[in-house]
Amino acid sequence: MGPGCSRDCRFCSVSHGPKFLDPGEPEKVARAAAALELEYVVLTSTTRDDLADGGADHVTATVEAVRATVADADVEVLAPDFAGTRRSVNRVASAPIAVFGHNVETVPRLYGGVRPGAEYKRSLNVLAWAAEAGALTKSALLVGLGEEKDEVCAVLRDLRSVGVSIVAIGQYFRPTTRQLAVARFWGPRAFEELEATARTMGFLDAACAPYVRSSYQAGSIYRRVNGARPKSAAA
Ligand code: SF4
C-alpha cells in the first residue's frame, strides 16, 4: 500500500513519505507469488489512515488475486488496525485467508512512547473482531523496549481473552540510530519461559526466540495448528 506509513512507531524504519495506492499491486503481488512458486504467502502493509477503509479493499483484492493465481497457496495477512473500523476488519477477516495477524507489538504501558497513534485496546478489538468473524488469529510482540515479564504475561492473557490462537515474541533490534535504543536484551532462557507460559495459557502455537518475527515459520505453524483444529473450525 505504498512506501509511506501514516504512523510513526518508534521501533520501525518504514518511511513516512508520499502515500499512494497502486491499483495494479494485487496482480503484481500475485504474479510474484506465482513466479516464486510460494505455497504460503504472508502479506503485510503500511498503515493507511488517509484511506477511508484503511486499505481493507486493497488487502482483500490482493488476497483474492493471490488465491486466484496460485491456487494451492495459503495466505496470511498481517493487518494494520484499520483505525479501529470493524467493517474493514470484517472485510479482510472474511477473505479467503489462512490467518489474520495483527501485532500488539508491546505492552500497554509503553504504547505512548513506542506506538504513538495506536491504542492497545483498539488492537485487542481488531483481534477480537477478526476471531468473531471466524478467522484464525495471531499476534506478535517485540521485547527489549522496557517492558517487564509480568507485563508481557498480562498481554498474553489479554490476547487469549480475545481468542488469539498463535503468538510470536522476538527481541527488538534497533534498525538505525533514529529508532529507540534497546532497553534490554532478553536471554534465551527468558524466551523459553515465555513460550512455555504461552502454551500453558492455551495458545495453539507460540514462537518465542530472539530472532522471531510474526512471519517466522508462518506456513509450518499454520499447517500444524490447522491440522490440530476440529474439522468444523479448520480452513
Ligand atoms: S504501523 Fe507498521 S509500518 Fe507503520 S510505522 Fe508502525 S510498525 Fe512501521
Question: How would you characterize this protein structure?
Answer:
With 235 residues, the protein is of the alpha/beta class. The chain has a domain at 72-228: TIM Barrel. Helix content is 37%, strand content 13%. It is built from eight helices and six strands; from the N terminus they run αβαβαβααβαβαβα. A six-stranded parallel sheet has the order 1-2-3-4-5-6, with helices on both faces. β2, α3 (86-93) and β3 (99-101) form a beta-alpha-beta unit. α2 (56-69) packs parallel to α3. It is globular. The two termini are 27 Å apart. The model has no long low-confidence stretch (mean pLDDT 95). The protein binds iron/sulfur cluster. Iron/sulfur cluster (SF4) binds at residues 5, 7-9, 12, 14, 46-47, 80.
CATH topology category name of one domain: TIM Barrel
- Spatial extent as radius of gyration: 17 Å
Query: What overall geometry do the principal axes of the alpha carbons give?
Result: globular
CATH class of one domain: Alpha Beta
CATH architecture of one domain: Alpha-Beta Barrel
The helix/strand series, from N terminus to C terminus, equals: HEHEHEHHEHEHEH
Beta-strand percentage range: 5-15%
Largest sheet, strands/sense/barrel: 6 strands, parallel
Bound molecules: iron/sulfur cluster
Helix amount = 25-40%
The poorly predicted ranges are none
Mean pLDDT: 95
Task: Write down how many β-strands occur, each being a DSSP E stretch of 2 or more residues.
Answer: 6
What class do helices, strands and sheet pairing give?
A: alpha/beta
- Cα-to-Cα separation, first versus last residue: 27 Å
